[in-house]
Fold this sequence. Notes:
Layout: H1 9-13, H2 21-35, H3 44-60, H4 63-72, H5 81-92, E1 103-109, H6 127-146, E2 154-160, H7 162-167, E3 169-180, E4 189-195, E5 204-209, E6 212-217, E7 226-230, E8 239-250, E9 259-262, E10 278-284, E11 291-293, E12 296-304, H8 305-310, E13 312-318, E14 321-327, E15 336-339, E16 356-363, H9 370-382, H10 389-394
Parallel strand pairs: 2-10, 12-16
Antiparallel strand pairs: 1-2, 3-8, 4-7, 5-6, 9-10, 11-12, 13-14, 15-16
Helix pairs in contact: 2-3, 4-5
The structure holds zinc ion (2 copies).
Amino acid sequence: xxxTQQKDYYGVLGVKKTASADDIRKxxxxxxxxxxxxxxxxxxxxxxxxxxxxEANDILSDxxxxxxxxxxxxxxxxxxxxxxxxxxxxxxxxxxxxPRGQQQGAPFDFSxxxxxxxxxxxASGQGWGGFRDIFSGMFxxxxxxxxxxxxxxxxxxxxxxxxTAIRGGIARLEIQRQELCPACHGKASTGGSQTCPxxxxxGQVTQMGGRMKFNIQCPRCGGTGKVQNxxxxxxxxxxxxxxxxxxxxxxxxTRDGQRIRLAGKGNAGLNGGPxxxxxxxxxxxxxPVFARIADDIHITLPVTVSEAALGSRIEVPTIDxxxxxxxxxxxxxxxxxxxxxxxxxxxxxxxxxxxxxxxVEVSVPQLRDExxxxxxxxxxxxxxxxxxxxxxxxx
Length: 395
Ligand SMILES: [Zn+2]
Ligand SMILES: [Zn+2]
């Protein structure tokens, strides 16, 4: 299953999300000077870092790519910036919360991508080339009307709450997809005929080729002057849009950004062509205490001065409930302690689990009585070391 990795491009460049194009350029130049392979020969870390900042700059310095990244948290050239904007607008209008807490994201349709065969040079209209090009579009259309035409793919974002992504479950959403028209079964016509709208029944059309005028057989009706009636249900499209409820399984350990492919659940094909696929991009929800990064769970845990200084065993929340953690004597604020295999069970590796990373935060007591203040003053006398000493040697 393909996974789209989340990357913090702003963090990589050390700029704010609101940074201007100029800020981004400056930040990149500064970092590039520092990490450029020419400046750091044979330094693997610098090379990695240089790749990272180059990638971040590539996305953030391009307005279109940045828009997509801002909206989805990752960049893919499969996504149309206009669709990203539409999704952003739809996202702001509020989600319908499902019974299990899943939310429906904004749909965007990939159907626009299939029209890559735009006639080159059609705009020039000069000489025979231009003439052919003008008509190639129409002939293409005729051919498409008769041959099998595969359906386009659909892509939806699905917001899945924190626990469902970890434990698995059923997600529900409504999708809009093109289906074969139930009235004409995709034929686009009810069988009767009408006057050809292209040649108005003449069977011939006049076209300019450069400065010359040509009468040619109407490509729409093949010179008969009549075409089949458009089906009134689908207006001659052969397909209709339908909103369809969809239920699918979320695997335990599903990650944010993961793509799920449902084959054949995209738009219907025409004339016997296969249906497209439906891609679901999972957006994992957040939790007030646990932060999830890939399969690891991160948590910040306050401890008292005495617990940190003397060492202790404390209870820590994990995604499975309470667990014991040993705080070694002399633990500093900000220190990270790893609880192995207390993270999220992997969706891809059977039996594997992430870790829980506990960041210790030493909580300084508010002294409310004279006796406690006395004890601390005495403590200070017994421990005259200056924690800033090493700093002074460096400035
Ligand atoms: Zn129809
Ligand atoms: Zn015609």
